[in-house]
């Protein structure tokens, strides 16, 4: 009998021990559906955070402007003020009309500029008005006056980007840089390609000319202010297919009547004068180009602005001469 009771006690103890083991094992079972969902949501959130960080890094853009400054953009600017006509024309060419908050008084193309807010001209820009528009970016040209404006805007926390293209290659680079900054890369590539093709086509036609005409370029009324070498317009004049008689002049300067009469160019390219004005300028009426009516009016804005229309301006003069 004692043996039987002892056996029963032993069995009970074994059952208790086994039960404890089973309960412990249950504690190690897989998490509940709710726990699994919470874990999955946490992992998904971490993944999205990481993807967001990577996307922000992809949006970041760093470009070097014409002041040799490295300008970093954490995201693409949404709005812009343009302080140069050539930049305004380029922004419109990139289909950015809705993003342009302000322009200068000198910005006269395309027609849509009529609806834009004016912030003054290159000689009298209203910095306070620019700031009041709250642009994400101000694009501007080079030079001393623009440098002063740039410093003032910088002090007021307005980001700026400076473009001062000195040749046609830099104009093409300007298109691509603006496209990169404003997330208009496809439009910029198309503009760049069209510009490049028009340029190469005109250069090809110029190379086929049998006899190059000599020319002088007159830029201002009532003066003999002309263009020499080493400036943007001198390269544009080469595209018209003429030989510039003022090539020994550096930059922009006045040419004397004596030199002009001595060189007696085949043609005169002007942005202001007409034949009657030149006839009224004393001895200039004796120039062969004046006598033969070979004075050609170039489109000042197209020829002088380093922007999308400059090749068109050069072609117009080329076709008038040849």
From TrEMBL:
CDD domains: YvrC. Residues 29-58 are annotated as: Disordered. Residues 79-322 form the Fe/B12 periplasmic-binding domain. InterPro entries: ABC_Transporter_SBP (IPR050902), ABC_transptr_periplasmic_BD (IPR002491), Vit_B12_bind_prot (IPR054828). GO terms for biological process: cellular response to iron ion. The keyword Metal-binding does not apply. Residues 32-56 have a biased composition (Basic and acidic residues). Residues 185-212 form a coiled coil. Pfam families: Peripla_BP_2. Keywords: Coiled coil, Signal. PANTHER family: MOLYBDATE-BINDING PROTEIN MOLA (PTHR30535:SF34), VITAMIN B12-BINDING PROTEIN (PTHR30535). Belongs to the bacterial solute-binding protein 8 family. This is Periplasmic binding protein. It comes from Natranaerobius thermophilus (strain ATCC BAA-1301 / DSM 18059 / JW/NM-WN-LF). The lineage of its organism: Bacteria, Bacillati, Bacillota, Clostridia, Natranaerobiales.
